[in-house]
């Protein structure tokens, strides 16, 4: 089956510096993959390059089987950028922002049922009661959830999320994890940038870790941080400063992101 995301030999330079070096990333249809790494390792740049927000100068990108460009089925791609305000400067309600997620370059007018779909997406992120509120009156975490709803309303086949739960309270993270689990159950492919697996730990079967713009790990996710505190935790995995002990020889480097 065609992978949902295929990047090969990807290189990105910004401001005269090389940010991504020869990144290979394949995300298969229906997979849920976490993108991990320390601050500045290139996670956002990779996701932004995948959706064409920043240009790449080396390698190739295919999304949903099409080369990055107009042939991609953008109406089935949802993207939640790293925390930005959902407020547009123009008075708009949470519902208006979410309805705007149904628009794309070939659809400039919301489709029939867009309002109902927007309200469902807002309910999925726990904001049903705030649909009619101006986004400028919402808290930062609530605005983040509006942006998640804006991506969900597209009923995406591929969902790219850049730290979607940063600044979102735990009950809302758990509600969001349930929504993502339901989407994954329907076959949606999910690539999510995270600092902590947190509430999404149960969903993520594979983690790709970046360091200095290179892939340093691609395999099982690191154990949840709180496992360290549990009695019976057997410390079989490497910690910072340990020598690599896994087959790929680099898992300890992967784990160092936690302490930065
Ligand atoms: N527009 C830009 N011009 C120049 N350098 C940039 C630009 N955007 C990002 N960078 C640099 O690229 C590197 C990677 O940044 P990026 O935001 O991709 O990291 P990240 O892994 O997502 O970090 P964080 O966990 O802090 O969000 C950083 O060194 C950053 O300073």
From TrEMBL:
Residues 224-245 have a biased composition (Basic and acidic residues). It comes from Cellulomonas bogoriensis 69B4 = DSM 16987. Belongs to the ABC transporter superfamily. Pfam families: ABC_tran (PF00005). One of its GO terms (molecular function) is ATP hydrolysis activity. InterPro entries: AAA+_ATPase, ABC_transporter-like_ATP-bd, ABC_transporter-like_CS, Metal_Ion_Import_ABC, P-loop_NTPase. The lineage of its organism: Bacteria, Bacillati, Actinomycetota, Actinomycetes, Micrococcales. Transmembrane segments: none annotated. This is ABC transporter. It comes from the Bacteria. SUPFAM superfamilies: P-loop containing nucleoside triphosphate hydrolases (SSF52540).
């Amino acid at each position: 089956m065609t992978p949902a995301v295929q990047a090969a030999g990807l290189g990105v330079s910004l401001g005269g510096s090389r940010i991504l070096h020869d990144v290979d990333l394949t995300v298969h249809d229906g997979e849920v993959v976490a993108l991990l790494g320390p601050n500045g390792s290139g996670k956002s740049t990779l996701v932004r390059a995948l959706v064409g927000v920043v240009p790449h100068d080396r390698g190739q990108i295919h999304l949903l089987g099409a080369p990055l460009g107009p042939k991609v089925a953008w109406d089935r791609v949802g993207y939640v950028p790293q925390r930005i305000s959902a407020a547009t400067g123009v008075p708009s309600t949470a519902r208006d922002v979410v309805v705007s997620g149904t628009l794309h370059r070939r659809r400039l007018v919301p489709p029939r049922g867009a309002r109902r779909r927007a309200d469902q997406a807002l309910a999925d992120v726990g904001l049903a009661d705030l649909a009619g509120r101006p986004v400028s009156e919402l808290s930062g975490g609530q605005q983040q959830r509006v942006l998640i709803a804006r991506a969900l309303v597209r009923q995406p086949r591929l969902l790219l999320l850049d730290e979607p739960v940063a600044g979102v309270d735990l009950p809302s993270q758990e509600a969001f994890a349930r929504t993502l689990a339901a989407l994954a159950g329907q076959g949606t492919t999910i690539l999510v940038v995270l600092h902590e697996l947190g509430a999404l730990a149960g969903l993520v079967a594979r983690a790709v870790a970046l360091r200095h713009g290179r892939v340093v790990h691609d395999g099982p996710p690191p154990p949840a941080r709180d496992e360290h505190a549990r009695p019976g935790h057997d410390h079989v995995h490497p910690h910072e400063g340990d020598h690599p002990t896994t087959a790929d020889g680099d898992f300890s480097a992967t784990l160092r992101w936690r302490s930065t």
